[in-house]
Amino acid sequence: MKRTSNPAELAEIAKTIRRHIVTMIGAAGSGHPGGSLSAVEILVTLYWDVMNHDPANPHWPGRDRFILSKGHAAPVLYSVLAECGYCPVDQLNTLRRDGSIYQGHPDRRFLPALETSTGSLGEGLSLAMGLGEAARVDGASWRTYVLLGDGESQEGQIWEAAMYGAYHKVDNVCAIVDYNKIQLDGFVKDIMDLEPLKDKWLGFGWHAIEINGHDLKQVKDAFLEAAATKGQPTCIIANTIKGKGVSFMENNPKYHGVAPTPVEVEKALKELA
Ligand SMILES: Cc1ncc(C[n+]2csc(CCOP(=O)(O)OP(=O)(O)O)c2C)c(N)n1
Ligand SMILES: [Mg+2]
């Protein structure tokens, strides 16, 4: 893969990833487009610009780790891993089929390049804490990134792990909240509001940074600030738009877990041309 810090190139990659997401979920006839599309700039920045990793050597011990705690957004991770060269692009459209390496939620048994299987919400930050501690025990410099959903942040286990991270100063872990304001069946504020979200992370003893999660420069700068923060873990609260890039999906709770029809796929791909 060719790494890049060039915003124009990263934006082109992001568009390719969005096309994959729409196409593969359309082909599957089921899946989660909204929360996949909202996380594109975050994953593209991590995999093309920030993380140390090597698609030719997926289990290189010195690699940075990424955990998709909101595992239902598997299409964004699969598209990114495939475009990096970890797994085949031409099988993305087998998403959710029996025996496919691209299961509905990330499954390490089918795709060993994954760090872990996810999909049961609330677990990823705890896994990240374990990885962070493991790196520390080994005296290693690799970092762990974990992407959380905002609806997912209503899970109690997240806050248990958050308490752990601050108390034990697990500063090699960076959490990102994909703050797209929508969960499974509606707006977060109408179901169980998270506000004041940044104050909650600060109150739990974390360094917290709030950004626009679609602004590539802000995303990159936040990761640099996280890496430079010592003595406490960092949470990046990334304000995003669920369904970003496809007009009729943007900010529409329907597209949390509904696939685009063939006509909608065509319309979406025109917008992402
Ligand atoms: C423990 C658990 N409970 C319920 C679900 C079902 N579920 C899948 S996605 C989702 C909503 C998640 O909302 P959010 O974290 O905001 O995701 P995003 O908006 O990023 O798609 C729920 C409840 C699950 N996967 N795991
Ligand atoms: Mg959400």
Reconstruct the topology from this structure:
Blueprint: H1 7-28, H2 33-37, H3 40-50, E1 65-68, H4 74-84, H5 124-137, E2 144-149, H6 156-167, E3 173-179, E4 182-183, E5 186-187, H7 188-192, H8 197-203, E6 207-212, H9 216-228, E7 234-239, H10 262-271
Parallel strand pairs: 1-2, 2-3, 3-7, 6-7
Antiparallel strand pairs: 4-5
Helix pairs in contact: 1-3, 1-4, 1-10, 3-4, 3-9, 5-6
Bound molecules: thiamine diphosphate and magnesium ion.
Thiamine diphosphate (TPP) binds at residues 32, 34-35, 70, 72-73, 119-122, 149-152, 178, 180, 182-184, 242, 256.
Report on this structure:
- The relative contact order is 0.16.
- This protein has helices spanning 7-28, 33-37, 40-50, 74-84, 124-137, 156-167, 188-192, 197-203, 216-228, 262-271, and strands at residues 65-68, 144-149, 173-179, 182-183, 186-187, 207-212, 234-239.
- The strands form 2 sheets. The protein has a 5-stranded parallel beta sheet, with helices on both faces. A two-stranded antiparallel sheet has the order 4-5.
- The model has no long low-confidence stretch (mean pLDDT 98).
- With 273 residues, the chain is an alpha/beta fold.
- It contains 10 helices and 7 strands.
- It starts with 6 loop residues before the first helix and ends with a helix.
- Helix 1 (7-28) crosses helix 3 (40-50), helix 3 runs parallel beside helix 4 (74-84) and helix 5 (124-137) runs parallel beside helix 6.
- 40% of the residues lie in helices and 12% in strands.
- The site of magnesium ion (MG) has 7 residues, from strand 4.
- Magnesium ion is lined by residues 35, 149-151, 180, 182-183.
